[in-house]
Structure formats: C-alpha cells, structure tokens
Amino acid sequence: MSTRISCEVREEPAVTVVRLAGELDLVTMRSVHTELERCLAAQPDALVVDLERLAVADRLALSVFAAAARRAADWPAVPVVLCAPPPTAAAWLAETTACRVVPVRPDRAEAAALAGAAAAPRLRARLEPVADACRRARELVADACGRWNIPELAGPASLVLTELVGNVVRHARTPMQVTLTLRRPYLRVAVMDGSPADARAVTTRDPGPRAGAG
C-alpha cells in the first residue's frame, strides 16, 4: 500500500492546477484532502485537479474530491474540476453518486476552460501591515462594489474588512492578502495573513489604539 502522494501545484492563467501522483487509497486520501484544503485556502479563481498520474486503489477514496468540491463551493466559492483520470478511475467516478458533484473532463485544457468559466468574480490585493492598510482595504471595497453594481453592500463590507485588516495590523503584523468574492446576493470578504499561529478567541478588548480609522 502506498503511503505517499506527491503533489505539484502550478499557477496557470485563470486557474490553479494540482497534479497528483501516487496511489490513492483510504490512507493517502487524507494527504490529498490536506493538500486540496491548502490550495483552496489561497482562494484561487478556480482549481483543476489533474489525475493522470494517480492510481486509484480504492474507489471509496474518490470521495475526497467530492468533499473538497462541496467545501470549495461553500467557501471560498471556488469551482473544482477533475481532469485526465485513468480509465478505471474514470469509470468509478462516473458510477459514484457522491462524486457526480465534481465535473470531470478528459484533458487539462478542457477542464481549465470549464473551471475558468464557472469562476466567481473576485478582486484581490496584497497589503502591508501599515497604518493606511485599512484605508486601502476600503478603497478595494469601493472599487469592487462599483464594478459589480452593488453599492448597497459597500458600507457593511467596509466595516467588516476594516476590522479584519486592523486585526492583522495589530496582531499578526505580516503582509496580508485581501480577497473580495461576489456570490449574489452576497459579497464575501476574506483576509489571509502570514502568521503560522492558529487564530484564537479573545474575550477582552484590545486596550491599544484602533487601527481601523486610518
């Protein structure tokens, strides 16, 4: 039984491609799930999973792709498409109800085209942990709401994003990626910092000055 899956991640125009190699079974599916979660946390526009070099030893392990696709559809609203499965895996994917939520295409180009067409409108910005980061975040919200014709969401989204960015400036103190995603009728805002520490709840207010008013 294989205990290792190799994974190559490559950024291509409009999509992120994950190439898996090795043997997929009920043990190695865990590492596949972890890698897909890591890729989705970066909030790509779309994700293509290349199965050409993946040997599927247990058809039940294919459920890892359905789980990842369902999670991605909820957050961060990223379409997932599988491509180039070997014949046995392709047959199992076609027969498995749980995996019918994930589109499968015979080659990477077709999968990338499908995934890119299904991608939600998204804006990103890389911000430094400086005093005017919150102002820059609000400008990004104004740009997005104007571009997508949702002016009524500009105020609430600015408040939420200002708080998130301010938290990074005060606590993580690392560069951050701000992402706005349109999933009508909602505008989703997300901030990813570079801190390796897990987020934790704080029950007392920070006595320091507010950074969000800049």
UniProtKB/TrEMBL annotation:
Q: Which InterPro entries match?
A: Anti-sigma-factor_SerPK, HATPase_C_sf, STAS_dom, STAS_dom_sf
Stretch forming the signal peptide: none
TM ranges: none
**Stretches assigned to the STAS domain:** 5-115
Please name one Pfam family that this protein belongs to.
STAS
Q: Which domain of life is it from?
A: Bacteria
Q: Which PANTHER family match?
A: ANTI-SIGMA-F FACTOR RSBW, ANTI-SIGMA-F FACTOR RSBW-RELATED
Name of this chain's protein: Anti-anti-sigma factor
